[in-house]
Amino acid sequence: MSTPLAPARPTRLSLALRDSSTMLRRNLLHARRYPSLTLNLLLTPIVLLLLFVYVFGDVMSAGIGGGGADRSEYIAYLVPGILLMTIGGTLVGTAVSVSMDMTEGIIARFRTMAIHRGSVLIGHVISSVVQSVISVTLVGAVGVAIGFRSTDATVLEWIAAFGLLALFALAFTWIAVGMGMVSPSAEAASNNALPLIFLPLISSAFVPVDAMPGWFQPIAQYQPFTPAIETLRGLLLGTEIGNNWWITVVWCLGLAALGYCWSKAVFNRDPK
């Protein structure tokens, strides 16, 4: 009689995928059970969008368009910047979540279990990207409700715009994970991640770089949010993109690599 075949042993890749999906479900469940942080961070870009449109919109439209006041012009200009600002705000919650895992002992428990080590970080990253995409969709729906339109964008440009947002979220999520891992508390992680909210405020999100004081223009120009915002505007509104698209890709790839190496090094460090 032939002996039954032994079941095939799972490969390293299959174990990594299985453990990563488990960690992803864990983080999404945490987000569902504790939605207050996500909602608070989501409200910030919505409030800024409504404030700038309905309080400053007419004046800003006159300045940008060079003609009469027309709020719709400023809505079109503002929404792409607010969408990228939404990603920055979501990442504060990611840094806080990672810091809580690091300081409350669950990471130490994971180290003793037979799971793929990288799955803990991958679960946080994918969960954060999913939350960023959902948040951007909700803020985008608010923008459409108050008058944002992108009638000239082709299907290919919409796909490119979505890819840009996802790549941007992925790159900055790795940075947020690194910030959370080195923070001694959730409060410190929130403070460390504040630049992710602050940077869009000094970019071209609200006013063109050319309209800023001369000494301030390099600060606004040479940072990751401005080229990403200008690329997104070009895709959705048909404005000039120029070199901004490849500058954005370089920023994203560089930040993703930096955040990944940083997070991995801290995670693999022996606990004290």
Please explain how this structure is put together.
The protein is mainly alpha-helical and 272 residues long. The protein has one domain (20-268). The protein contains twelve helices and no strands. It has helices at 12-33, 36-54, 57-65, 71-103, 106-111, 118-145, 155-182, 186-192, 195-201, 217-221, 225-237, 244-268. α7 packs antiparallel against α11 (225-237) and α7 runs parallel beside α12 (244-268). The longest helix has 33 residues, at 71-103. The chain is elongated and about 60 Å long. The model has no long low-confidence stretch (mean pLDDT 83).
- The portion of residues forming beta strands comes to under 5%
- Average pLDDT confidence is 83
Q: Based on DSSP secondary structure assignment, what is the total number of beta strands? A: 0
Helical content (DSSP H or I, runs of 4+)? over 70%
| Beginning-to-end CA distance, first to last residue | 56 Å
Secondary structure category: mainly alpha
Radius of gyration: 21 Å
Structural domains: how many = 1
Main pleated-sheet profile: none
Element-by-element helix/strand order: HHHHHHHHHHHH
GO molecular function, one term: ABC-type transporter activity
Pfam families: ABC2_membrane
Protein name: Transport permease protein
Transmembrane segments: 34-54, 74-99, 120-146, 158-182, 194-216, 245-263
